[in-house]
Known about the structure:
single chain, alpha/beta, D-Maltodextrin-Binding Protein, domain 2, five-stranded mixed beta sheet, 7 helices, 37% helix, 23% strand, CysQ/Inositol_MonoPase, magnesium, metal-binding, Inositol_monophosphatase-like
Amino acid sequence: MTDHELAARLATEAGELLLTVRAEFADADAKERKAAGDKRSHDFLVAALAQHRPADAVLSEEGADDPVRLNAERVWIVDPLDGTREFSELGRQDWAVHVALWERGELAAGAVALPAQGVTLATPVVEAPPSAPGAPRVVVSRTRPPAVALAVRDALGGTLVEMGSAGAKVASVVQGISDVYVHAGGQYEWDSAAPVAVARAAGLFTARIDGSPLAYNQSDVSLPDLIVCRPELADAVLAVTTAH
Length: 244
C-alpha cells in the first residue's frame, strides 16, 4: 500500500469510526461526544500507523509531542477530529479527519475525510472543478471570521461562505464551493498539513499570509495563518494579506 493509499484509507476509516461514535453518543452531552470522538479516532490512527508504518514518527493533536520526530525523515501529522464543535452538533457535516505524511522537509501525501458527507479527498491527484463565474467566495468561520478575510472579501468584491472546521474550509475550495480561504489568529500544524497536501494536489495556491512557504514538522507546532485559494486569485489575495 502506497503512502497516498494509506493516508486515504486511514482518514476514511477514522471517519467511519467517528460516525459510529456520534451515533453511540447521540443522547450524551456535547462535551462527552467530543471527548469520545477525539480519543477513539486518535487511538485508531496511532495504532494503525504503528502497524503499517512502524518506523515513522507521529504528530497528533491528541497525543504527547515526541521530540524524536524532529530527527525523523518521515512524520505522520494527523488531526483525529478537526471541528469538534461541528462534530458535537448532530446533523452538521463541516468536520473532518486529517492524515498527512511529511517526508524530508515536504508534505508527501495527505487525505482529508469529510465523513458526514461520505467524501475523502486524497493525494496524489485531486480533481478540482473549473472556476465559477461571479464574485469570489471567501470561506470563513461561522463564529469568528478574521479581519484579514473580511479585508480580502472587500478587496475582491466577494461574498462570504460560513463553515466550520479548517479541513472542511479547505475542502470547500477544492470542491468548488468557495474560492478563497484566508485564516489568521491561530492554528497548528495538524490543522492544515493534510488540507494543504490535498489543495496542492488539486493545483491550488497555498502559503502563509505574508506569502512565505508553509513549513511542517517544526519544533514549534504553531502555524497560525494560512491562504488556500484558486491560483488565478493568488496575487489579488496576497496584495491584501501582505499589507494587512
